[in-house]
Design a protein that fits this description.
Strand content: 25-35%
Largest sheet: 8 strands, parallel
Radius of gyration: 15 Å
Distance between the termini: 30 Å
Oligomer: single chain
Shape: globular
Structural class: mainly beta
Number of helices: 1
Number of strands: 10
Helix content: under 10%
Length: 151
């Protein structure tokens, strides 16, 4: 699914309620300032099969709120690729429990704190222009890592 250039939308639709959704690309939704409950929808497990999630050119996006109905299973249990580009006002942190995440790409998100310690399956990391990069768990060795770009 692609949502592109919806400049008058103030929030994202409850896409987490689409149980078969595997790829989601969101681009140029400039009026969106927060992504949270409205995005996940009212379900026990949001985005159960989503593998690819991409946010690009969301100029006013400031906060990504965690999934409130999480009962330990985590949101995005199948997510393999997360890409956030040109979201310069986005603050805070990324979702923490992304057990299958293999590719992480963060570009021009100057206010975002990125912690890679939680993502043990990472094969590709591309981080260019974020506020802070955190790796606190010395036990994670990234044995599967094939490509690393930090700038």
């Amino acid at each position: 699914m692609r949502l592109e250039e919806c400049n008058n939308c103030l929030s994202l639709p409850p896409l987490g309620q689409l149980p078969q959704l595997k790829e989601l690309y969101i681009r140029g939704m400039n009026a969106v300032e927060s992504v949270g409950a409205e995005f996940y929808g009212e379900c026990v497990l949001a985005f159960p099969l989503l593998e690819i999630l991409e946010f690009v050119d969301m100029q006013h996006w400031k906060v990504w709120l965690p999934f409130q109905l999480d009962h330990g299973s985590g949101v995005f249990p199948c997510l393999r690729r997360l890409s956030i580009k040109n979201c310069s006002k986005l603050e805070g942190k990324l979702p923490e429990k992304l057990d299958l995440l293999a590719k992480l790409e963060i570009v021009k998100c100057e206010e975002l704190v990125v912690s890679i310690a939680n993502y043990k399956q990472l094969r590709q990391i591309n981080i260019d222009g974020c506020k802070v990069l955190v790796h606190t768990d010395a036990k994670v060795e990234f044995e599967l890592l094939e490509s690393l770009w930090l700038s």
